């Protein structure tokens, strides 16, 4: 077996007025409770350090910049304590945040930090940015201004090997091991990316074994989602939760990988309710563990990466069964 103890650190709401220090303290507390369960890898949500600020029209550059991080997270004064704790506990963490580059570009980013290496070993920048550049005219509509504040990610969907987490993997050559052997192969996606088959398949083609997905999904946003029929806010939230689980389960199955999803959940900024539903999903599409509420909560499971083999070697053995000569349209304009 290639066993790995993994956790999603779901976070309850964070507000425009929340202090970064308090948010990071909450993340450290979550990390400590994951540690008491023996977790080796802990995933935090998309924009874990702040409220989901793209719902607001922010005209002041200074205010906008205050929601971004301007240096690498393990070095930033705001977040170093979290990364120091991860290193001390020997737990890898993956954290979503708004990244401002030295050139002034904004990205919706997620990093993977290896505790043993004391380094960020992978970075992903969100590719499928939802919503609009301009706010809706209706002042009551829920906005999602990611296209205004972020550039589409420019790092692709690049799977990576995670060192030093599986016992018995030979140090030498683990980087070159075939998929299904050696160090785990992971990939990161962010929120809306999970609804796109292409995100998953691009990782699937690299032999991915665990997909990490942080998210902020609003329960009630008819201008964004569209609604075929009138729905109460509660029905809309149930529908959003259904679609979340649907894509996590179906895409894990179709790419023979585990997935971990971590929500920022609950009522942010007084009126924007985000769904919970953080979960860990198996390569056969089953939910192994799931959040019970919408507050800070650890969702934990021990997984065996060998379970990816069944799908990768049989039903979804891409080398034997894919028919790429029929898929041309997928990458045409
Ligand atoms: N944060 C994020 O990507 N949210 C989106 C909202 C979708 S708007 C149609 C999501 O996919 O959950």
From TrEMBL:
Q: Which domain of life is it from?
A: Eukaryota
Keyword annotations of the record? Hydrolase
Q: Name one GO molecular function term.
A: hydrolase activity, acting on carbon-nitrogen (but not peptide) bonds, in linear amides
Residue ranges constituting the CN hydrolase domain according to the UniProt record: 4-305
A matching Pfam family? CN_hydrolase
| PANTHER family listed in its UniProt record | NITRILASE C965.09-RELATED
State what protein this is by name: CN hydrolase domain-containing protein
- Origin organism of this chain? Amorphotheca resinae ATCC 22711
